[in-house]
Specification:
With 349 residues, this protein is an alpha/beta fold. The chain has 3 domains: 161 residues, ANL, N-terminal domain (Rossmann fold), CATH 3.40.50; 68 residues, Luciferase, Domain 3 (Luciferase, domain 3, Roll); 109 residues, 2-Layer Sandwich (GMP Synthetase, Chain A, domain 3), CATH 3.30.300. Helix content is 28%, strand content 27%. It has a 7-stranded mixed β-sheet with strand order 2-1-3-4-5-6-7, with helices on both faces. Strands 8, 9, 10, 11 and 12 form a 5-stranded antiparallel β-sheet that branches. Strands 15-16-17-18 form a 4-stranded mixed β-sheet, with helices on both faces.
């Protein structure tokens, strides 16, 4: 349940955080039935800005609208960014009006952020949120003192999940309810509270009690936090892989796969194994015209990660499954794998 107060509080926070003004032009590229984009209807309108609608995401059409309508900012999920960057001639267009690209809905690899900034020549920030929080909880926009840092350090901050959004209180807790060390290493669960956070689930008292404890919403997301309060999500609780007694965070493996020049998209899941409990399995879509084998991708990961973190199996597919919101559907990948199918894989290894 989101109240008028929840939505209004988030709207005003977004206007301040993103410095929205009447000259701003927002491209609605993400599905508007989802809060990943719907929040902008309120915030951009409050600021007096202009809305540009994209009924269905098609990379060439999105690029045309961004350029022709002089769009100043928008929000894209990582798969949309990948598809835009793969379009021929994207770097040769006029992006002088574009000031900020936001991305959310899934973690994004630093290598992709680097390409985005080089291509569109604008500011970039990662966002993180959920429907229960109207939606934004964090934002990775650089602070003033960050701009004196080396370029690689700035990139690292931009690609992080971010610091608390205006009006949001955020903590990262251990299982016993105490706060983790702010060392960017210890992992805990993100919990939040604030004016934009839901009071609960409609007519679901048990679910509400499980999610909201002592006034704090437990997100189910595992993260680290640094001394400046910037968090970095390492996985959903349900997505963490336990193999041979070791924890493997899927995003760490995915970030390595994204560094391979042939990889367009990657999803890493745990699959049941009699010996290890679970093993690491990767599902990968390649860039148009690119070639790579599953064995090649496994060897690439072994050059970057401890061997227990590396995929033991790889499927190369034409496209990864998505939810209606555009988020990656790992549940269907797990279900398909549990059923023994390769789901149209061109090369299961």
């Amino acid at each position: 349940m989101l109240s008028h107060r929840n939505v209004a509080a988030h709207m005003l926070a977004a206007v301040e955080e993103l410095q929205l003004v009447e000259t701003d032009v927002w491209l609605h590229a993400a599905p508007m039935f989802h809060l990943a984009d719907a929040w902008a209807v309120f915030a951009v309108t409050w600021a007096g800005g202009r809305h540009v609608l994209l009924p269905r995401f098609e990379p060439s059409r999105a690029l045309d609208l961004l350029e022709r309508e002089r769009v100043t900012l928008t929000n894209l999920i990582p798969t949309m960014i990948q598809r835009l960057l793969a379009e021929p001639g994207v770097a040769d267009r006029d992006w002088s009006a574009l000031r900020l690209l936001l991305s959310g809905g899934a973690p994004i690899a630093p290598a992709v952020v680097r390409r985005l900034i080089e291509t569109f020549r604008c500011e970039y920030a990662q966002t993180y949120g959920m429907t229960e929080t109207s939606p934004y909880l964090t934002l990775s926009l650089l602070r003033d003192h960050h701009r004196d840092l080396p370029a690689e350090e700035q990139l690292r901050i931009r690609a992080r999940t971010g610091r608390a959004f205006r009006g949001v209180e955020l903590r990262v807790l251990r299982e016993d309810g105490t706060e983790v060390r702010a060392d960017d290493r210890e992992v805990g669960e993100i919990v939040v509270r604030g004016a934009s956070v839901t009071r609960g689930y409609w007519r679901l008292p048990a679910e509400t009690a499980a999610a909201i404890r002592d006034g704090w919403l437990h997100t189910g997301d595992l993260a680290t936090i640094d001394a400046e309060g910037y968090v970095n999500i390492v996985d959903r609780k349900k997505d963490m892989i336990l193999t041979g007694g070791e924890n493997v965070y899927s995003t760490e493996v995915e970030n390595v796969l994204y560094r391979h020049p042939a990889v367009l998209e990657a999803a890493v899941i745990g699959v049941p194994d009699e010996t290890w409990g679970e093993t690491v399995h990767a599902v990968v879509a390649l860039r148009p015209g690119a070639a790579a084998t599953g064995r090649e991708l496994i060897e690439f990961c072994r050059g970057e990660l401890a061997h227990f973190k590396c995929p033991r199996s790889v499927e190369i597919v034409d496209a990864l499954p998505r939810l209606g919101s555009g988020k990656l559907d790992k549940r269907s990948l797990r279900a398909r794998r549990a059923g023994g199918g390769s789901g149209g894989a061109r090369e299961p290894v």
